[in-house]
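Issue 218. Parser rejects a valid record. Input:
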Amino acid sequence: MEFYTLNEIAEILKVTRKTIMNYIRNGKLVAFKMGTNFRVSKDSLINFIESRKYIPK
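Output the parser choked on:
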């Protein structure tokens, strides 16, 4: 399984690290704490992106 750091996720999504932390705190993005750092699995990232799709009516 592949994991990303919060900085890598922030770079991929073009948002700040603080925004990523807010997503995690609000339960929108699933993360794992490994030691003192958070990691986000590739599956969690894909699920997060899929859940944010905009489908016009």
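Fixed in the parser; the record now loads. The mean pLDDT is 95.
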